[in-house]
Task: structure prediction
Amino acid sequence: MRLQPPALARSSFDTAAAERASEDLIPRLRADAGTRVLVIRGDRAEITGDRLRWRTPDEAAAVAGTAEWGFLGRAGDGSARLVAASVPAAAGDDAVDDDGWASLRMAGGDLVDEDAGAFVTAVALGRWFADFRFCPRCGAPAPLRSAGWSRSCTGCGREQFPRTDPAVIVAVRDVRNERILLGQNASWAAHNRFSTFAGFVEAGESLETAIRREVAEEAGVVVDDLEYRGSQGWPYPRSLMLGFHAVAADAPAARPDGEEIVAVRWFTRDEIVSSLAGTGPVSLPGTASIAHRLIADWCGEHA
Result:
């Protein structure tokens, strides 16, 4: 069965990487009234319905205040797209503000394809702008270069680029493919939320090794029959989430680790379908997450 692309991987947004080499690209595009700019505060942007609010350069400068600017690429109509990113978020990640600002985590899955791709790229760049202002080797300031896609140290000359950390996320099913195993993170208990199992790939690990280790640590089961199902960027803080399905060889052994995961539970398709619709026994991940796509994919035509 073919997996629908994860919500934040649907975009055909053109990043126009060849243009980044132009040293005057950002000031030139800021002077062009046809350029459109996405203002980011932390992981939040202005959203109306299923579209981002793209501002003119002058409007963006007035709204963004002190911000760093980067080149996102070209929209389908050929217009240049920039991001103006400032550090503080307006509110918590999982909220929609009264004035129309919403987080990527909350609203990214409901946007049109092109805007979803632009949003995740903008947040990823913005977080890198904020977190890597200085050289990791000598500590000297490292101003932006390549239209926001690299930094060059003013001390030792070292060049650095936006980081992406691989992480695996896996939907575990039983041998008969009748149930799916989900876990509850300690921070989700008050919301009765369950999700798939995930974790960062450690130094020297393959993806397969990371999956088996994470599921064994968090849920106590041994998995096999790993099947890659898609990926998407997830800038929390800077991950590439690689999604898989897997089969638990020893379903009765499932148990939480008691620290990060406080509960694990096997769910039937009926329970998952109703939960995806908002009427079931538990809360499931939002539509922007690859976890949501993996769970819905397991349900197939029933979802």
User: Anything to note?
Assistant: The longest helix spans residues 113-131. Confidence is low (pLDDT under 50) at residues 89-93.
